[in-house]
Amino acid sequence: MPFCNASSHQNKDGDESNNNGTKIFYRTYGHGPVKVLLIIGLAGTHESWGPQIKGLAGTVTPNDDESTSGDRSNESDDGDGVEVCAFDNRGMGRSSVPTKKSEYTTRNMAKDAIALMDHLGWEKAHVFGHSMGAMIACKLAAMVPDRVLSLALLNVTGGGYECIPKLDRKTMSIAIRFLRAKSPEQRAAVDLDTHYSQEYLEEYVGDETRRSVLYQQYVQGISSTGMQSRHGFDGQINACWTHKMSRTELESIRASGFPISVIHGRYDVIAQLYHAKKLAEKLHPSARMVELHGGHLVSHERTEEVNTALLELIRASKSKISLHEWTNLHKKSKVCKATRISFYKTSSLSFMVDTVEKLHLFLLYFFGLFVLAFEHARRAMRSLKPVRVGSALT
């Protein structure tokens, strides 16, 4: 099976401490001079990129010949063939599962991806990431911008508090059901509401709804790969929560000159559209914002549109298009920004909005504590053994 020993590929900074013994499982698809690295998100495996692998490489049959993958990197730059690599992040699938939460950061996971590029013999690649994978892709682009040809960020946020979803009845229900999911069937049911828009799930495919069809597929997929381990899940959550892109890192990406696409579903209940737009603005003029009718897994819900956007991004990189022609965003002037801030400060409406936002975070925080406390209490009660009491002495 194709594995990359991340610890055997020393990074430029010489720090291998967090890659010690980590093995990354990967698969390559298709052949050609165009190299595409796909980085999946939280609790996902390389198979989650299926629709994009098919759209980019033209096949979902893995190459599986690890011994020749490095040789193909020396092919001529002529031609349009695409070779795609998708892999399981540390903590998921067939890759290593470190037990220390501190070993899960987007920087360490970006190092895994760079080690994989070295292993494949890829000097440069188009780097596409989804959700947490998009955070990892951002880190990779900031660490080795000279090795990135283009960057696609699907359903991304800036990490930290931006990972907090909207607080409403639907997300509260999803959170409770997710924590209580102990079987592939329970996990599949909650994943569907997390990944797709309700409109898409209720559409009919023949005599069945998409929900019914996808439910069977999800149960089968989760059963074959197994539920994610507690170490892996907690670690990847830690990576999302501690992720942050500094101004220096963002400037490094902007200054590198490669085109960027920020692709997002309007009805994403996990990663809010607002945060994706904000990141795209920070990457101006390199970024183009692509807003689609879909949920968190917009790459599956709107496969054709996403694949078209990705192929267009590859063509833009190859043609070396001017970034000012590429972007569809307009950078706001400092004067306008200052005027807007001044207006908001004097507006009672702004005060109400700020108060509601703070209350939202406050309620979500205590709701999370309540759910965690409930789970711990339930486990504690289950672990208690009944005490056998002898007959009383009279």
From TrEMBL:
Start and end residues of each AB hydrolase-1 domain: 36-302
A GO term for molecular function: hydrolase activity
Pfam families for this protein: Abhydrolase_1
InterPro entries, per the entry: AB_hydrolase, AB_hydrolase_1, AB_hydrolase_fold, Epox_hydrolase-like
Keywords attached to this entry: Membrane, Transmembrane, Transmembrane helix
Transmembrane domains' residue ranges: 359-377
Superkingdom of origin organism: Eukaryota
UniProt-listed SUPFAM superfamilies: alpha/beta-Hydrolases
Disordered as annotated region, ranges: 53-81
Name assigned to this protein: Alpha/beta-hydrolase superfamily protein
Naturally occurring in which organism (per UniProt): Forsythia ovata
